[in-house]
Amino acid sequence: MTDTRRRVKVYTLNEDRQWDDRGTGHVSSGYVERLKGTSLLVRAESDGSLLLESKINPNTAYQKQQDTLIVWSEAENYDLALSFQEKAGCDEIWEKICQVQGKDPSVDITQDVVDESEEERFDDMSSPGLELPPCELNRLEDLAELVASSLPSPLRREKLALAVENEGYIRKLLEMFRVCEDLENREGLHHLYEIIKGIFLLNRTALFEVMFSEECIMDVIGCLEFDPALSQPRRHREFLTKTARFKEVIPISDPELRQKIHQTYRVQYIQDMVLPTPSVFEENMLSTLHSFIFFNKVEIVGMLQDDEKFLTDLFAQLTDEATDDDKRHELVNFLKEFCAFSQTLQPQNRDAFFKTLSNMGILPALEVILGMDDVQVRGAATDIFSYLVEYNPSMVREFVMQESQQNDDDILLINLIIEHMICDTDPELGGAVQLMGLLRTLVDPENMLATANKTEKTEFLSFFYKHCMHVLSAPLLANTTEEKPSKGIEYLRDDFQTSQLLALILELLTFCVEHHTYHIKNYIINKDILRRVLVLTASQHAFLALCALRFMRRIIGLKDEFYNRYIMRNFLFEPVIKAFLNNGSRYNLMNSAIIEMFEYVRVEDVKSLTAHIVENYWKALEDVNYVQTFKGLKLRYEQQRERQDNPKLDSMRSILRNHRFRRDARTLEDEEEMWFNTDEDDLEDGEAVVPPSDKMKSEEDLMEPISKFMERKKMKDSDDKEVLGKSSLSGRQNPSFKLSYSGSTKTSLSSPPSSASLNPGSPGSPGSPGSGARSSPSTTAVTTKGGLVGLVDYPDDDDDEDEEEEEEDVESKEDPLPPSKKSKLSS
């Protein structure tokens, strides 16, 4: 009994002035040492975690509403509410709050503490209450002035609310309204408008319950029709009684539920249509009105959900073929409103709500509704479907996979959604955009579940690509047909609505490329989708051409060689190049998108695409000088070809990638860089390479590292071997050697050394030091595993042992250097 009595829901008011559920638990009160005072504690009934810990402050204003609600503000913009399951529990906690604050539990609100002058406070505290003038026609003006003067002061507002409540003043005012309306007393009606509007701003639940009662609410609305600022009164009551009809699509047996529905609709109408816009008032002046509507909706959903006969009849009529279209239209609109109300439920109750709808067969019912011709009915069904997808996409996926085992592809629920997206008659495709978003949610692997026994992603994507993808891509295939083989694939319809639809489809296909990989890859390659998509780059609508480019860019971004081979085999860069050239010199999004695509290929060094682009389209692109992208691609291509022509370079690069031969990243001196940039073909096969700058170094500087190296070598092996050394590029002298290859030189080795020609003035050519080596057939460069290398004296103490092993290997495989090399080093 205690658990049920103290069972509560915790709500907080968000920035949009809507109540957010924080969970269900059990409330208690007690002294909390950390907060130094008596506090309200709410522990979750699910796991016992602390949902709320709030100290009862003496100055905080607590409100008791509808016998089961306690509302208060923790801070300036942080409102809280406890909704009790039973009135007895609410009364117990309210008594505790009043006890801490020293208030009488019979009041429904504890007084606010405000910054008022001492004189005003003394006057308010000294007067026992507010005395209202008699409710007579000639005193309405005085009453209106009293209400207006009381609103700025919270204390006076509270006294006014108590006086109105205790004297039954609202019913007296409504009687006076009927008299004024019969007498057509426009001045009295204007005063009553101001008085009733002021009573709304008192923000008191007890007053709302009287005003929104069945016998009073229409007269309250009538008072609010006579705004003094308007020349003619509004006709709100006429609309509510004649235009707005309550349609009981399924008979509601509970009179309390029926009355609650009527009340909620009318109060919502007052809030949305009758009262002035909220910006006229202070932010929190109508917070109790918001709360009243919110908790009414929660109560309505709960009462309907508990009525099993009602829901059974609802879904039976929805799916019954004998139900006429008008009746089904009403049923669908009711179900849509029902789902909208469910958004006010807390998460666990919303779970139970949608599970109930699922068990009742809401998805088969939607399938029937979506097959109807009525556009409005289909629109309502789409809204209901969106609630289900947003709540639990896995439930929808499971249903469509199960029905695929029994039904044809044409009548599957997901295919009906795709067809409605394709056939949307709205020129702006508003419905199609909504449906595309739902499809995207359904095919998103991020919200798919994976268990030990099955993987939802694998099963659903296999189903989707087998049964649904051909329906989604049908407009794309139909509008890019190959009518005449000589002309190739052409884009048939280029009107705005068709282009918008294709752009939506491309957006979803692009999403699939990013997230589905295997399935979409097979589909694109087997159906030649990319070729058809790229036809759209010739569209007169720039947004569609950009969608096509974005689709290809996502494919290239995957750096998948299957895709790359498909692109090269079918020469699919050709329509992109044509679009680029047709765009001319215009600096627009199309120009930037295409250049970025080629820049990506260059920066990421996608070798296969680089070669394909340069070999097939270089002549068309070589004159583009305002960006360096295409020249950079050509350079990448030439470097790649040089590496292919000289396999020794590739083996050398593999050696340099090895951790034992790490290259020290240092900037070359200008003179050395000039030497590296000289044509390597000038070197004769086997000629040793020595930079010209080394010739100018002193003999002492040059020989020091070699002598130290030889001393180390003698300690390991007594054999007399000679090794060629080179001083450090940065001028430092160290005893150890490392293999180095500069990949950033402008001219790489483009042919084997044996075929190189010699130019005068280059190292190793006639007229330069060391040219005598040409006569020695045994002349070779220092190599490791067949690769051509240079020697750099950067230290790497960690790899001494590895270097010594390499050096032994070099000595065992190579002949001693010829005398010409030794003379060059010692000269």
Automatic annotation (TrEMBL):
Residues 677-687, 794-812 have a biased composition (Acidic residues). Residues 739-762, 771-781 have a biased composition (Low complexity). It comes from the Eukaryota. Residues 143-639 form the Serine/threonine-protein phosphatase 4 regulatory subunit 3-like central domain. Residues 709-724 have a biased composition (Basic and acidic residues). Residues 727-737 have a biased composition (Polar residues). InterPro entries: ARM-type_fold, EVH1_PP4R3, P4R3-like_central_dom, PH-like_dom_sf, PP4R3-like. Gene3D superfamilies: Pleckstrin-homology domain (PH domain)/Phosphotyrosine-binding domain (PTB). Residues 5-101 form the PP4R3 EVH1-like domain. GO terms for cellular component: nucleus. Residues 677-827 are annotated as: Disordered. Transmembrane segments: none annotated. PANTHER family: ATP SYNTHASE GAMMA-RELATED (PTHR23318), SERINE_THREONINE-PROTEIN PHOSPHATASE 4 REGULATORY SUBUNIT 3A (PTHR23318:SF3). Regulatory subunit of serine/threonine-protein phosphatase 4. Belongs to the SMEK family. This is Serine/threonine-protein phosphatase 4 regulatory subunit 3. The lineage of its organism: Eukaryota, Metazoa, Chordata, Craniata, Vertebrata.
